Structures are given as C-alpha cells and as structure tokens.
Amino acid sequence: MTSSSIWLTLAERYLASRNLDWESTARFCFNERCNPDDDNLGVQIVKDLHRTGCSLFSGDQAEQNQALLKRVLLAYARWNKSVGYCQGFNLLAAFVLEVVEWCDQDALKMMIYLVEGVLPEGYFANNLRGLSVDMAVFRELLRMRHNNLAMHLDRLQAGESKAGLNYEPPLTNVFTMQWFLTLFTTCLPRSLVVRVWDLILLEGNEVLLRTAITIWEGLAE
C-alpha cells in the first residue's frame, strides 16, 4: 500500500468514528457561498500562498495549484470555525495535496484527521497551548538524553542575555516551533517527511519529539 492509501484509510476510519455524513460535510465545506467570513479568511490565506515554498506552487501550474490549495484551506476553516485558518496550514495542506494527488476532498479528510484526530488539542488554537506543551516536553527530553548539548545551549543563551539582547525563549524553540507547526515539511527532504508522517499518523504526536531529538543529535555532531 502507498502512503496515500494508508493515510486515507486512517482518516476515513477516524471520520467514521465521529459518525460524519461525508457527502453533507463536503457539500457544506466546499460551498463557496456558505460562510460570510470567507472574504476575510481568503485575504489571510492568499497572503500565505506565495510562502508555500514548493515548486508545484510556482511555474505553469502555479495559479491552478494555489486555487486548489486555497479551496482546501477555506473548506477546513468552514469545518472547524474554532481553529479557522492558522499560519502554517498552507504548508501542511500543500504537502497533503501533493501526496493525495490533488484530490480536494481527500486533502480535507486528511486535514481534519491530522489536526483533530492526531495532534493534541490546542496545537493551532488556544494560544498554541498544545504546541507549547510539546516544546516544554522536548526541552526536558533533550536534557535527559543529551545533557551536554542542553547545557551548551543554555550557555549560549546566557551569553546572549549578558550581551543585552533580552532573548527570552529557549534556543530550541527557535527551531522546534517551526518543525512542529509544519510537521517537518520545511526542514527535511520530501521522502523523509513522508516517512515521518507515516509514523505520526500511526503512532501519534510523540513521533514529533523523537524526530526532533534525532535532528538535534545530527546538529550536535
């Protein structure tokens, strides 16, 4: 089985567990006249589309692919009004679209499953509470597994503070926030991202922590 078929099987099982009528859901989410907030959301999404750093969203097919990406992002925002559209969703949805071969309904299924069925609650909403927890857990995990590296980063940050730069967030956050929000789509080759997502969808968000530790181990060397 391909990653695409495995992902969709998992997503559809999740949706079935919620007793969703998918045909009705799809009609609502892809109805471009159903939400008065669409105009504001559309403006916000368009601002991010040019930041989708993928060759598939440039060149001859750029306009068509960006329109499809916008369609999926708006559909998810209509589906989950409490989350809506968050920065970084463009990268997640772009990667999903590529894997599911540009099927907008399959991409929406995957976004629902990923955001609501796999990642912790509040990962993209409620002031990124879920993300903040993962970053805090990661810092402790790094200290347990690689204390010398953690102490080295602490010394670097202490040096910055003494220089009067008023740098407050832990240095690991500079990297891990983007890694976690985009599920590594911005920092790893596509083939590796597919494998990481395979594990995330099968085993859960703890794979994010394991992957980040592995990357830091490579950086430490």
TrEMBL record:
PROSITE patterns: TBC_RABGAP (PS50086)
Cellular component GO terms, alphabetical: endoplasmic reticulum
Superkingdom per UniProt: Eukaryota
Residue span(s) of domain Rab-GAP TBC: 1-204
Protein name as annotated: Rab-GAP TBC domain-containing protein
Native organism: Haemaphysalis longicornis (Bush tick)
Listed InterPro entries: Rab-GAP-TBC_dom, Rab-GAP_TBC_sf
